Amino acid sequence: MWTFDYTAHRAFVAPAAERSQIWRLFVGITLIIGVFIGAGSLIYSFIFGGLSLLNMDIDVANILSLLFNFGAVTGGVFTAVFFVHRCRPDIVFGPLRNAISHFILVSLGICILLVALGVLPPWGFGEPLISNRLFLPWLLVLPVALFSILIQSSAEEILFRGYLQQQLGARFTSPWIWMALPSVLFGLAHFDPQSAGENAWIVVAWATFFGVAMADLTARAGNLGPAIAVHFVNNITALLIIAVPGEFGAAALYVLPFDMTDVEMMRAWLPVDFATTFAMWLVARLIIRR
Predict the structure, then answer these.
(1) What is the DSSP string of 84-127?
(2) What's the rounded Cα separation, in Å, for the pair 81 and 65?
(3) Alpha helices, DSSP H only, in the chain?
(4) Which of 112-121, 175-184, 195-204, 240-249 ranks highest by mean pLDDT?
């Protein structure tokens, strides 16, 4: 479990090696951004309009539409891989059968871990959780919400681990490049001083740490399955079960008794967040061990 033998990573990046020139990477990133800007708003408008016709709460419809919006990122990556790198788009997943198998097994393992962490002491956040949604309406929205989170979490993994890590790994052998650089970019993508206030850089640090963990899982497994699974289950917990108050907590069953701008509480719980991520990484590592 503790080995950092990344033999599987060499097979993961091999399909991208022939056309992994840096200029192609920059063109590909530009194309991805263009597709996201062009198609993202269309996806958001289409989904929001459809959910509104179902009389869904406007705040919930908004967050779910934003999550579905990430499908444009996946579309952008597939477009770049096909037209810029002249490869089949599915190479970003690694071997599909292995990716699907690892996704299912790691998802189940992480769910068991989080349930165990929820029932074991210590309990609570110092103050009681705040009920945010009635259970039955929340349950009725749950299938659509789960699918939206799968779209969002898989899109981020496809971009940062599937595309950037694969392309950089095909060009450079050092993990300091193919593992660290996409993780730092992933962390910076979570910089949001408007929502997090003084804690914005703490959120960046946590996201960077999360990115490194997902990069390691991808390199160890040779496919995106484990990283998508961890990201998916983590975001279900953070967006649908117990969320931080605010726009992204609109669909959650409960919200925390503090928000991201609460410096004292956020920094008190930072070690817990890091420890939970580390535990999820360990469970995933255990499942995909060879």
Answers:
(1) TS-S-GGGGGSSHHHHHHHHHHHHHHHHHHHHHHHHSSS-SSSS
(2) 26
(3) 7-13, 22-53, 58-68, 71-83, 96-119, 135-157, 166-171, 175-178, 180-188, 193-196, 200-221, 225-236, 263-288
(4) 175-184
Listed in sequence order, the residues at least 6 apart from 238 whose beta carbon sits closer than 8 Å to its beta carbon are 244
**Residue 211 belongs to a domain:** yes
Give strand pairing partners of 177: none
Bridge-based pairing of strands 254-255 and 130-131 is antiparallel
pLDDT in tens, 218-253: 999 999 999 999 999 999 999 999 998 888 889 999
The domain of 156 spans 7-288
For residues 149 and 165, the answer to whether their CB atoms sit within 8 Å is: no
Are 156 and 224 in contact, with CB atoms under 8 Å apart?
no
Cα–Cα distance, 238 to 235 (Å, whole number): 5
Residue 2 lies in a domain: no
pLDDT digits (tens, 9 = 90+) for 179-188: 999 999 999 9
Domain count within the chain: 1
Tell me which residue has tokens 């701008």. Answer: 261
Quick check: pTM over 0.85? yes
Amino acid letter, 125: F
Residue tagged 């996806």 (tokens): 43
- Could you give the C-alpha distances from 231 to 144, 262, 281, in angstroms and in order? 17, 25, 10
The answer to whether position 1 is within a domain reads no
Flag whether 76 is in a domain.
yes
Burial of 154 (0-12, 13-18, 19+ CB in 10 A): buried
Tokens 């484990």: give the residue: 226
- Bond from prior residue into 122 cis (ω within 30 degrees of 0): yes
Provide the 10 A C-beta neighbour count for residue 123: 7
